[in-house]
Amino acid sequence: MARALRIDLNCDLGEGFGRYDLGEDAAMMALVTSVNAACGFHAGDPDVMARTVLLAKQNGVALGAHPGYPDLQGFGRRQMRMASQEIANAVCYQLGALDAFARVAGMKLRHVKPHGALYNLASQDTATAQAIAQTVHSYDPNLILVGLAGSELPRMGRAVGLRVADEGFPDRAYLSNGQLMPRNMPGAVIIAPEEVARNALRLVEEGITLHGEKVSIETLCLHGDNPEAIENARAVRHAMESAGVAILPLA
Amino acid sequence: MARALRIDLNCDLGEGFGRYDLGEDAAMMALVTSVNAACGFHAGDPDVMARTVLLAKQNGVALGAHPGYPDLQGFGRRQMRMASQEIANAVCYQLGALDAFARVAGMKLRHVKPHGALYNLASQDTATAQAIAQTVHSYDPNLILVGLAGSELPRMGRAVGLRVADEGFPDRAYLSNGQLMPRNMPGAVIIAPEEVARNALRLVEEGITLHGEKVSIETLCLHGDNPEAIENARAVRHAMESAGVAILPLA
Amino acid sequence: MARALRIDLNCDLGEGFGRYDLGEDAAMMALVTSVNAACGFHAGDPDVMARTVLLAKQNGVALGAHPGYPDLQGFGRRQMRMASQEIANAVCYQLGALDAFARVAGMKLRHVKPHGALYNLASQDTATAQAIAQTVHSYDPNLILVGLAGSELPRMGRAVGLRVADEGFPDRAYLSNGQLMPRNMPGAVIIAPEEVARNALRLVEEGITLHGEKVSIETLCLHGDNPEAIENARAVRHAMESAGVAILPLA
Amino acid sequence: MARALRIDLNCDLGEGFGRYDLGEDAAMMALVTSVNAACGFHAGDPDVMARTVLLAKQNGVALGAHPGYPDLQGFGRRQMRMASQEIANAVCYQLGALDAFARVAGMKLRHVKPHGALYNLASQDTATAQAIAQTVHSYDPNLILVGLAGSELPRMGRAVGLRVADEGFPDRAYLSNGQLMPRNMPGAVIIAPEEVARNALRLVEEGITLHGEKVSIETLCLHGDNPEAIENARAVRHAMESAGVAILPLA
To answer: Among candidates A106, A86, A104, which has minimal Cα distance to A94?
Structure first.
C-alpha cells in the first residue's frame, strides 16, 4: 500500500437533555477526532449544545451537526413519514442552531451526520438523501457529509458537490455483501473490545465491497452511550496506532 | 427640525405552527419594512420559517429573528424563571436556526427582537437584557437589537457595542412618564385606525420622554394578528407619508 | 326495510392549541351528535380540552377521545414507526387525560376514535388495531370504538369484546370495491354540499360492500375545519331528515 | 405518648423520559410506602408511566400523581407564570393520564403531590394552592393531597374538603421558625445518612412548629435521584424501626 492510512474516529455526543445526562461525553472527547453533536430535536437542548461545543473546542475535536427527527421521546429512532421538504427544513434548522453555538465559541462546523432513523432512511432513500445533501450544500458547501459507507447519502452528497466521508461501524458485523448485518440477527452487535478493534482495523485497511465495488472507510463511529464505550474506543485507538494508521480528523 | 424624519415599520410574522396559521403574513409583508420571524420556540416551525424567510425576500423586507421562551402553548407570553445563561443559550439557538434559512435563501439577518414575556423581562431586568445583548453581539456584532424605547434592552445593547433601535407601539397608550400604559388599564390598547396613526406620528415626531430624557423612536411595531391589522398598518403608512416621514428599514 | 334507520354524526373538534384556533367548534357542536376531542398529542392542550368538554356538555353531544401520534407539528398526520406497546401507552395516556376533564365536568366518555395517520394505520395493520382495541377495552369496556367501516380497527374492536361503530366519510368518494378512493386521485374529495349529502344518504341507506360483505355505517364523519364545514353539515342533516333517518348518538 | 407513631415514606419516581433513565426506581420502590409518579409534563412519558405503575403494583406501594409544569427541559423546576385556570387544567390533564395507567393495571390513585416549582408555588400562593386543591377534589374527592407541612397547599386542601398529608424533608435543614432553610444557605441540604435519619426521626416525633402552631408530619419525602438515595432511605427506615415508628402508607 503506497499511501499511509488515516482514519477519523467520530462519536455521537451531547445527547443529554435538561436534567438528563447520557453518555460519557468528557471521556469520549479525549478519544475521538470528530464529535457529532445532537441539535435539540431527538436530543440535546441549547444548554447541552453550548456545553458540548465548548468541550469539543477544549479537546480540539472537529465539530459536526447531528440532526435527527423531531422526536425526543423516541430519541430520533422512530421513522416519521415526513415530506422531503420537511426533512430538508428540519435539517436546516438544526444545522443553524448548532452552528450558532460554534460561532459564539469561535469554532466552525466541519461536518454533518444525520442521526438514527433519519440516518438509516437517508442510506436507502434517494429523495431523503438528496434533500439532506442539498440542504447541507446550500447552507455551507464546505461542510463534509458523513453517511453509511457506499449508501445513498454519500452518493447524493457527491452528486450535489459536497465532500463526503464513508462511515464504518466497528461494533457491528458486516454481511459478505458489504451491508450491515441487521440488528436483530445473532452476532450483529459486537461487544468484546478486542473484536471491535479487529473489525475496526479490517474496515480501515480493506474497506468494504458493495456490489463489486470497493468503498474506503474514512471515519469510524464509536458509540459513547454504552458501558463498553470507553474500553472499545481505547481498543480501537490502540489497534490503529499499532498498525500505523494515523488517527486524524476528516481533512 | 433639521434632518428629515425616517421610520422603520416592523411586524411579528411567521407565527404559525404546523397545521396552524396565524396572522396576515402575506398582506403585512407588503406594508412593513422589517419582519420579526418566530424561531420555533413560542411559534414558528422549520417549514413556517422557510416560508417566512422567502416571503421576506420576495417583499424586500429586512429580516430579523424573534426569539421567545420555549413555550408554544403559552405563545411565549408566560414568563419562565430561566437563568440568564439559559436565556442566552435559548436566544443563541433560535438566532442560528433562523439564520440558517436566511443563509440558504441568500439573505442576511438584520436585527433581533425578543418576543412576548421575554421582551418584557428584557425591558426591565438588567441581567436578562445583558444576556440577550451579549449573545446577539457574540453571534454577529452587525445585528441591530430592537427593544422597548428607553428600556434596559437597548441600554445593554449599546453597552455591549451593538447598534440598537428604540421601538414604539402605536396601538398602545403611553403614560405621561413615557412608559406604556399597562394592558389592564382602560384605554391601554388603541383600536381605531385613525388614533393608531395619530399615535404613530406623535411617537415618530416627538419620541417619548423617560426620566426627563428624550428617546427617539426608530421603529414602530405593527401588530399582524388581529382583525384591524391591515387597516391599522395602512393608516400608519398613510400618516407617515402625509407628514413626509420616510418609511425605511433600519440602517 | 323493516327497522327505522338511524345515524350518528361525528366531528373532530377541540383541535386548537394555545394561541391557535382551528375549526368551527361552536357551530359544529350544534350540528353533530358526537364529538371527537383531540387529547394533547397531535392537537388540543389542557385548556382547549377543558373548553371542548364543556361545549360538548352544553350542546348535549356525546363525547369521545380522539388520540393521535405525539406530533403537533405534523398534526398527527405523519405516520411514526412506534411499537404496538408504545401506541397502546400513547392511547391510554390520552384517554385518561380527556376523561379527567369529562369527569370534572360530570360527563362520561362515550367513544374513542384514533386520529389521522394513527386511524389510517389502525385500519390496515392488525397489530396496531389490536393494541388500540385492547387498551380501550382495558380502560373501560363500555367505550365504543369508532373506526373505518369494515377495516381492521372495528374488526379487532369486536374481537376484544368492544362495541364498535363503523364509520363512513360523506365527503370522500368510495371505490367500487368498498374502499375509500385515495386522496391523490381526482374526485377523491367531494366538495359540493349536495353531493356530500347524497353520498351521506347512500352510505346510511346502503352501507358499503367490502370483499362481498355488506357493512352498515353507524356514524358519519363531518369535517369541521374547512370553509364548507357548516354548509356540508347542514346539507347532510337535511338529507337525513328528509329521508326519515333519525340523527342520534351511538347507542 | 399515648398513640403509636406512624409515618409514610414517599419518593418521586418514574422521572425518566424516552431514552433517558433517572433515579433508582426499582430499588427505591422496595424502601418506600408511597410513590409519586411523574405524569409526562416535567418528566415521564407514557411508556415510563406504564412501567412505573406496574412497579408500584408489584411492590405494593401506594400510587400518587406528581403533576408538574409543562417544561421537560427545566424538569418542572422553573416557575412559569400560568393563570390559576391553566394550572388547574394542567393538573387535571396529568391526573387523568396517570390514572389511566392505574386503571388499566387494576390500581387506584391514592394521592397527588405537585412537583418542583409548582410544589413551591403552591406552598406559598393561595390561588395556586386553591386551583390545585379544587381540581383534585373535583377529579376524585377521595384522593389525598400531599404538600409542604403547614403551607398553603395542605391548608387549601382541607378547605375544599380533601384529606391532606403534611410532608417533611429529612434531607433538608429547617429554620427555627419551622420553615425550610433556603437551598442556597450553607447546611441547607443534609448529606450524611445518619443525620438524615436523625432529622427524619425528629420530624416524625416532634413535627414542626410554624407561627406557634405544631404541625404533625404524616409523610417524609425520600429523594431517589442522587447517589446517596438508597443509603439515606435505608437509614431513615432503620431509624423509624428502631424508634418503634410504623412505616405505613397514608391511610
So the answer is: A86
Give the angle subtended at the CA of C46 by the CAs of C44 and C48, to the nearest 5°. 50
**Residue A14 domain flag:** yes
- If interface means Cβ-Cβ distance under 8 Å, which residues of chain D face chain C? 40, 46-47, 49-50, 85-86, 89-90, 92-101, 103-104, 135, 138-140
C neighbour chains, 3+ CB pairs within 8 Å: A, B, D
Answer whether D22 sits within 8 Å of A18, measured CB to CB: no
Are the beta carbons of D32 and D55 closer than 8 angstroms? no
Q: Mean pLDDT throughout D203-218?
A: 95
Q: Which domain holds residue D11?
A: 6-247
Find the CATH number of the domain harbouring C239.
3.20.20.370
Q: C80 and A82 in contact by Cβ < 8 A? A: no
**Residue A138 within a domain:** yes
> Among A9, A30, A12, which Cα is nearest to A22's?
A12
Q: Give the residue numbers in C contacting D (CB under 8 Å), as ranges.
A: 40, 46-47, 49-50, 85-86, 89-90, 92-101, 103-104, 135, 138-140
The shortest C-alpha distance from A167 to chain B (Å) reads 26
Q: Which residue has the cell 428604540?
A: B166
Give the residue from chain D lying closest to B82, CA to CA: D78
CA distance A19 to D77: 10
In a domain, D31, yes or no: yes
What's CA D180's distance to the chain center, in Å?
15
Number of domains in chain D: 1
Complex prediction ipTM: 0.96
Assigned domain for A1 exists: no
> Nearest to residue D249, comparing CAs of D80, D35, D16, D68?
D35
Predicted local confidence at residue B3, as pLDDT: 60
* Of the listed ranges C105-109, D57-61, D211-215, the one predicted with least confidence: D211-215
Using alpha carbons, select from A124, A104, A112, A121 the residue that is nearest to residue A34.
A112
* Euclidean distance between CA atoms B37 and B17, whole angstroms: 12
Three-state SS letters, D109-142: EEEECCCHHHHHHHHHCHHHHHHHHHHHHHHCCC
Contact by Cβ (8 Å): D133, D157: yes
Between CA B8 and CA A248 the distance in angstroms is 51
- pLDDT tens profile D71-130: 999 999 999 999 999 999 999 999 999 999 999 999 999 999 999 999 999 999 999 999
Q: Which of C113-127, D132-146, D224-238 has the lowest mean pLDDT?
A: D224-238
Q: Which pLDDT tens digit goes with each residue over C54-81?
A: 999 999 999 999 999 999 999 999 999 9
What is the C-alpha separation between B204 and B213, in angstroms, rounded? 16
H helix count then E strand count, chain A: 8, 10
D174: which DSSP letter?
Answer: B
Task: Please identify which residue in the block is written with the cell numbers 386542601.
Answer: D157
pLDDT for A126 beyond 50: yes
Chain C residue numbers with beta carbons less than 8 Å from the beta carbon of A70 are 71, 73
Nearest CA in chain D to A21: D20
CB D167 within 8 A of CB D147: yes
Chain D residue with CA closest to A47: the answer is: D73
